[in-house]
Amino acid sequence: MTLAVFFGCAFIAFGPAFALFVFTIAKDPLRVIILIAGAFFWLLSLLLSSLVWFIAVKASNGSQDPTLPRALLIFGVFFSVLLQEVFRFAYYRLLRKANEGLAAISDDDGLAISVRQMAYVAGLGFGIMSGAFSMINILSDSLGPGTVGIYGDSQYYFITAALMTLALTLLHTFWGVVFFEGCEKSRWWVIAAVVCLHLLVAGLSLLNPLYEGSLPPVYVITLLMAVWAFFSSGGSLNNLNALCTRKT
Amino acid sequence: MRKMEKLISINCVKLLITALFYTCVSCSSVEQKIYVELNDTVPCVRLLNATHQIGCQSSMSGDTGVLHVLESESDLDWILNTGPHPPYMVIMETAFFSRSVMLRMKNSSRVAGVAVIVSRTGLAENFSPHTTCPNQNTGVYSAKYGPELANCNVTTWNPLGNGLSYEDFAFPVFALKDENQTQVIRKCYEDHNLRLNGSAPQYPLCAMQLFSHMHAVTDTVTCMRRTDLQNRFSINPEILCDPLNDYNVWASTRPLNNSAKGQTTNESFVIAATRLDGRSFFWQEAPAAEGTVSGIVTLLAAVQALYPVIQLAPPPRNIFFAFFQGEAFDYIGSSKMVYDMERKEFVIDLNNVHSMLEIGQVGLRNGRDLWMHSDPISRMNSSSVEEEVSDMMKNMHSIAAGLNVSLDEPPASQPLPPSSFQRFLRARQIPGLVLADHRTSFVNRYYESMYDDAENLNVSYPPNLSPEEKLVYETEAAKSLAEVATLVARSLYKQAGGDDSNLNNITADPKIVAQLLYGFVIQKNNSWFQSLLPPDLTKKGILSSGPPQFYIGLGPRTYGPVHSVTLFVQHIMANLTGTVTNLTETQCQKPDDISTENKDLYAYFWVSGSTAVNSSGPFCVRAPVRLSKAMSPAFERQEYGSQDYSTWTESRWKSIRARVFLVASRELEMLTLGVGVAVLLLSLLVTYFLSSKAELLFSSARETPTTTY
Question: What is the pTM of this model?
Fold first, then answer.
């Protein structure tokens, strides 16, 4: 759909992630490393889920059932979500181990980076990589002169894909914060809640192309997760009050 | 933890490598949702000569336009003036493919390209995109020779010609031949682009993109100069255009020593010639039924009629059969042969030529007469030529009286029609005749167009015949051409000095004519053609379905260096004039060592033989049939701006394809960009604000703050 759509969708999908990276991650090399390692862990989870998908497709090869592609997709999505959360937990364990090592070698008296900050950076890493894999393919096709629709799909395909990617990036960040906090305090219901919410969001995306059914609920969930992550990472209403009064 | 990590990473790498060995399971990329690729595109390409460029050109990254079907005058007005979504990609119904409409499109900036629907419904009574005076500058009539006859002053040979093939279009023009593809495009148009109650259609609209970017510009001189520069100075030379070239087919009744050049014998030859090629507005589309096939089939049938009698009672003079390639493009083949003859680089030279009989368009007789055209100037200038030509005419009259053919002469002051004989006259005034079914202008209403096909030649079969039955069914057209072929064969025999008593034994077989006609205008993939060709050629796919196309083209093709039509004619001639030998395949390819075989006098062909179950399989045929290079002498002499020889070249290109898709409105695109920029700026602002107030917002009683107030 030409250059305007390419840049528009790229900015929508990656704008907040870019802003977060520039203002909070780029200055600290340790955070950059954790970000990239987080992205790598997400990539590993994607590799495993793609293997599961591949095996499933090959196993059902030859079956001409018309509902098969959809069933395979649902199966694949389910397993992918589970694997992503498993790798998030694995990354948490890795970071905990690494933290002790970092504390031992650092010059400062205390921790070089707090677990809360690591949670945020890890979540953002997951989010950026997930966003990249969702969006890059679609962005490259948006450069051509045509738009989606000749086979009956909606012509708002690119914009809704970009908005979905934006939501997912932010959601991964918030889930990272909440998940790590839950692991720290051994609150297993928190972890279960994160997994369930992830499955819910993935399930809502399967409602596409009924975009009214998938996008607004996902954004509502994003807002709720934002609030939860804010309170989970040490924020409180008092702080907000203090911020407002300080301003005035 | 580190060990486990290493294990995981090694396993991952192994898995990745094994996964890479499998091809993609089912790639459903976004591109497949957007574009409908059109296969089998028929483009119009750019051709250049010494001074001009003709044909069509698209921009480097294709030309996109909103589809509009041109069915009526109001559509034309919509496209050129009032439509709100220019530029338009015009889907042109057959009736509108005319000079006036195309020139109006050419002058408009609102047309991105044209796709012409090729069908016989709605076809005008006549359509010839060729010029009114074919090959007017390279014939024999010029300011120095018969100036009053030059440039079609006396007779316009192709009055129905609109010259479209020789216009230069700055947008791509494609032909839609496949009915299914046209249906896809029409459906997309009807779903999205139709006007409701006179108001403009709403976005998203159906659009098409055509890619046919040509590398050569201006003319042959410029293109060859740039190609020469590339060849000399570039490591990876980029060739921009190629001269049109292929091969002529020639044979003689008494074998000639191919390795000897020039006038080695005192033999005298009667040349029987016809053309091998045709053209149309689009690339590689040239069914050329009446224009070319009628002549080829007649001459081949005449060869078949003559040969048995010639073996029994050889006439004193030799008969030289020639099929010239490239005649549509300023006589490429015949000018090359005459050029070689003049410089004594061919097996015979002009001193050997006694007379010439050329077969022009002879297919649309249907009870009408045949006409013998001759050159009035040479008859006036030379009494020997006049005598010889009158003799030839008298002989043909007497032969025609015995057959069911009415033969006549056109007005005495009329010049020759466009024919290869004109190039021979340019070199030397030899006596000759051109046989045609038109007295003055062509009767072919679709000369050099896509519609000069079997229907134009009135080749029709009764329904419910299988292909094998159609192959041998003698249509009216076949019988008519067989009569002409008999006339030609007997005249050639008489002209060569043969005895009158043998004339009645020379008859063309209508069955052979029917087979030739079927193979050349209906279906080349038939059992007879298969049996005549070598097995490796048929394996490479030279016999695809449909009739052969007669456009000369250039250079090597997938199945070999020679055009398919040239190969068919060569092998048919070999079958008609050759003898079967019992050589093996390796011996057939290299007969040098065998004492009884002579590679100088004959060519050896390894042919498949009959495809019937109880046939013996491939065998070797020895025949005096040769190919001679048909490339314009202008390229040998490197005179790319020559006015005497053909300078036609065809441009090169990278990709030619077409695709259909939907386009969104400009407003939606700008909205997307606007939203994107807004999101980016907003997120930058919010993040800056939050990160600067981070300590305040995320302070907690347990953790040590990293900064102090």
Answer: 0.89
